[in-house]
Amino acid sequence: MKTKKSFAWMLTLVFVLTLVLSACSGGNSGKNTPGNGGEATTAPTAEAEATKAPENREPVTLKLISWSDSYQELYDKFHEKYPWITIEQIPVNSQPIMEIIASLEAAGTPADLTWIDSDLITYDQSGLLEDLTPYIEKDPTFNEVQLPEGFFDTMTWKSKKLAVPFVDVPMWILVNKDLLAKHGVEFPANDWTYDDFREIAKKITDPEAGEYGLTTQPEFQMRVLSTKAIADGHAANIHYLNEDMTQSLLNTPEVMNDVRWLSEFVWKDGSMQSFAKATETGDVTREFINGKTGFAIGGDWVLPNLKKDAKFEWDVLPFPKGKVSQPGYTIYGPLSLLSGSKHKEEAFLWIAFQFSKEAQKWKIDQGANASVIDPELTAYYDETPMWEGKNKEAVKIAKENAKIQPGVTVPAWGEYNWNDLLNKIVFEGADINQLIPETEKWNKRTLEVRDTLK
């Protein structure tokens, strides 16, 4: 938690930065705004500019703020296509990204692009982000590809596209096939149900052998629980949000029963250990890779270690089927163009490059989803070495059925206390009725904040 002093200092930095950006960027924001002559200025078509011969271009280095150093191969592919442009990663190193933006601006070396570590609204209200709408409307790449319906919904605020996904992170149920076989349980079909999930978890649990159905990980309440609420028709969006994401349904009887359902894995079935029990037994069941649990939640970040170090046969399944649907869960990592960038045209080329087939295939090779709808990319799931010998159809189902994690454009999202509360209820046995006043408080707060935003 930040102290009030450090928080105030950060706000001061942001305020100063906002004034600097307002003074410096003026009509060069890439939006359709009146110029001095009364005419409208429009965002340049970056792809058209890029057609100039490389030898006639001044070298450009783009500063990209990110918390991952695993993208160098993609940076190199981009450099091969645009040899005058180099990507320089600015590591986050646990520092708030808004502070990094401010310090680079103050040093006269502003960043061009950033991954976003919190809600987009805060960045937008501080004047830090470029509206991507005019760039996207003119860009050949975006005009040629087919994107999923509602692709920009979670990254649009007041009709401004504030970001694009730099990666589409899918999630699956990881399965320890050896543990299933040991207990005589067949590998489930891809259309398995939440009832199947629970029954199998009980069947493969053997406390004397230190074996449990589920890994003790918060991801089960973070990902599966809210997805089950959608699957059973109790909520419209992940994290129990209603259709237009203005209110939480976490305090409704139906959703509270879903919470009780998952809690019973710990306190009734015994197929998942509580936090205390996991600690008492040496924390072995907190990590799927130890081979002592049957199911876990995984995304692309776990695949390298599993492929390298797992001593058992593992595979993946889509999230189970509910009473009305079989939704999956995915995270869009926001990538934004900073309004203080001195190289907006080139920076947008990096954004557009993310949606080329070359970049999309590279991301599939890392275990991520393809963002673009294209038969060639769908077929590539069968070709990539990443999924050789695994349940490829489950990966495709997870992609097709995925619901997007919300939050980046939900007012007061950081004050929505769903995660801590549910961990305490599910894994520590806390009183479920805490959800009622906490949800009522946030529902009021998010509407109040929404009314104040410009």
UniProtKB/TrEMBL annotation:
Database matches in Pfam families: SBP_bac_1
UniProt feature, compositional bias: Low complexity: 39-48
Compartments (UniProt record): Cell envelope
Stretch forming the signal peptide: 1-25
Keywords, ordered alphabetically: Signal, Transport
Record carries keyword Signal: yes
Cellular-component GO terms for this entry: cell envelope
Superkingdom of the organism of origin: Bacteria
Chain residue ranges for the region called Disordered: 28-55
Similarity field: Belongs to the bacterial solute-binding protein 1 family.
Protein's name according to its UniProt entry: Sugar ABC transporter substrate-binding protein
Organism expressing this protein natively: Paenibacillus radicis
